[in-house]
Amino acid sequence: MTDADDMLVFETTLDAPPEKVWRALTIPEYLERWLQPPADTALDVIASEENRRVSYRWREPAPVDGPAIEDSVVTFELTPQEDGRTGFRLTHAPLAVPAAANSNDSVALMLRAA
After folding, report:
1. Model confidence over 36-66: pLDDT tens digits?
2. Which Pfam family is one of those matched by this entry (predicted)?
3. Nearest-angstrom CA–CA distance, 47 and 61
């Protein structure tokens, strides 16, 4: 999928059954309440397995004075636990756009120093 340095993985156990966690992940009003994505962020479902896994394409608008932000994928995985709780895993990848191999950023820095 992507290099491990370019992704965020968070795992925990939630004190709620998978069905309740699923609603929090898939009902837009609930998702926005706890996730609070930046304004104008688009979340499009790209894969879903009810009460088990949902993946969103995360699209942030490009900043006015900066380069476009690469789309990323946010995946939530739910695992039912014997005690009625839910194993929760969040993966967000990629987190950063790697610099191009032919990037000229250092040239601008050298010109300013001259």
Report:
1. 777 778 889 999 999 999 999 988 877 777 7
2. AHSA1
3. 22
The encoded tokens of residue 54 equal: 């949902």
Residue 10 and residue 89 in contact, taking contact as beta carbons nearer than 8 Å: yes
Q: What 8-state DSSP symbol labels residue 69?
A: P
Give 39-53 as a DSSP string: TT-EEEEEEEETTTE
Please report where in the chains the tokens 């001259």 appear, as a residue: 114
**Helix H or strand E encompassing 77:** strand 72-80
Q: What is the value of pTM for the model shown?
A: 0.73
Residue 110 or residue 92, greater confidence: 92
Chain Cα centroid distance, residue 78: 16
Structural contact between residues 55 and 74, judged by C-beta atoms closer than 8 angstroms? yes
Q: Which domains, ranges and CATH numbers included, belong to the chain?
A: 4-113 (3.30.530.20)
